[in-house]
Amino acid sequence: MNKLWKIIQYGYLVVAAICLVEGIIRFNSDRNKAYLFLIVAVLVTFMFFVKRRLRQKIEKRNSNKPN
After folding, report:
1. What is the pLDDT of residues 22-60, one digit of tens each?
2. Helix, strand or coil for residue 30?
3. 32: Cβ–Cβ under 8 A, 6 or more apart, which residues?
4. What is the DSSP code (8-state) at residue 1?
5. Positive or negative: CA dihedral 45, 46, 49, 53
6. Neighbour tally for 12: CB within 10 Å
7. Structural Rg of the chain based on CA atoms
8. Cα 58 to Cα 26: distance, rounded to the nearest angstrom
9. 3-state secondary structure 4-40
10. Cα 3 vs. chain centroid, distance in angstroms?
11. Residue 43: how many CB atoms within 10 A of its CB?
12. Spatial CA neighbour of 48 closest among 3, 17, 23
């Protein structure tokens, strides 16, 4: 399960990169959509850090558990 969480965690960065590039490309033609893509990129990047911290806390808690 932890491997899947790590893959999904880095998927957030991929989505953020795609949104960032799309926002930059659309900036001259359609500013409203460009701003939307840039805001989504920031939010997804924030989610990456939140999910990473949560996963690290869970791993630390599970490693301290007696079997």
Report:
1. 999 999 999 999 999 999 999 999 999 999 999 889 888
2. coil
3. none
4. -
5. negative
6. 19
7. 16
8. 39
9. HHHHHHHHHHHHHHHHHHHHHHHCCCCHHHHHHHHHH
10. 16
11. 13
12. 17
